[in-house]
Amino acid sequence: MSDAIRKVVGSALAEIIESARSGGPKVKVGLMAAGSELGPEELARGARLARETYGNVTPVMIGPRTPGFEELEWIETPDCEADVASTLEAALKDGRIAGAVALHFPFPLGVTTIGRVMTPGRGKAMILASTTGTSATIRGEAMLRNAVYGIATAKAMGIKDPTVGILNVDTAQPVFRALTHLKERGYPITFGASVRKDGGAVLRGNDILVGAVDVCVTDTLSGNVLMKMFSSFTTGGSYEATGWGYGPSCGEGWRNVVSIISRASGAPVIANALAYNASVIAGGLPDKVAAELAAARKAGLDDEIAALTPKAEVAEEVKAPPAEPTDDEVHGIDVLEIENAVKSLWKAGIYAESAMGCTGPVIKMPAKHVEKAKGILKENGYL
What we know:
By secondary structure, the chain is α/β, with parallel strands linked by helices. It has helices at 3-22, 40-53, 81-94, 139-156, 172-184, 205-210, 220-232, 267-282, 285-298, 301-308, 338-347, 370-379, and strands at 27-32, 57-62, 73-75, 99-102, 111-119, 124-133, 163-167, 190-191, 202-203, 215-217, 247-251, 258-260, 328-330, 353-357, 360-365. 41% of the residues lie in helices and 19% in strands. 47% of the residues are buried.
């Protein structure tokens, strides 16, 4: 056997042994090597930490070489963020890297990122769907898609049946209603429950702190705020010390797996983000997204999106019936729909008032009308 053949065989055997030790093949994930507010050394430290801690990832630094980190793999560029960004995109396109962790990326409309945080109440990891990008321009559609993308990401991470909850923000109730309809028509979704006494899949702040569900669905801006708070609440905000970053990108027809970190992300978060990216690549994230969308669409996703899209309404003057004592209330109506819901009861001759309870908006009314009112509200799509 020639020396050249021995070298090739030896290299192949070394790769097999390393793969067996690490539990599988390592995924090459690119990391922007410039642009952090904490300096290029922090980015390189994150890559080194990932290399030393996780067996599933080979970090590839993209940017100007940082002295002292020669053991890392590098794709060198000039010290210019535009050059770093364009080189990262080119490396993704030509297959030199399978995924990427970036401080910024030009995602098209329809693509969002699915973050992951460590919740402090019980030390439980929780997926936030979503944290950057824009899955849709209409809030309700965006949150509905975020739910599907969050489930796909959890499954790519190996969570076979993730529990799902919806953060109690504007449009939470209509989104929960839409997801319930999908479930009734065969889409396999498992709702989690609030840790509070009254339970339910619409989550409050307590639930976020304890990680009551595997996937927390929210709008992107709220998710972004939560991500920053969870990752830096022990450091005063200038250094993101915990969590997995803003997560990998998901979108209909989108194949690139690009994760986002912040310019304030510290080495521990950078290392986790690299491993998170490698895990969902190994788990086939783009295919998981396509499969979840197909299953949701089969269960009526497009109809639910249409129902969540605001429609121009002709103003109709509706007068309240004569006032009566209100000694009962109905929960579960979204704050953006509460006034129209009240008017639908007025049209039916039921006196009702909108109010704000401790868990969100409520409709107050006489107890004798509650059952009939619930039927009217369901018929009109408010419950």
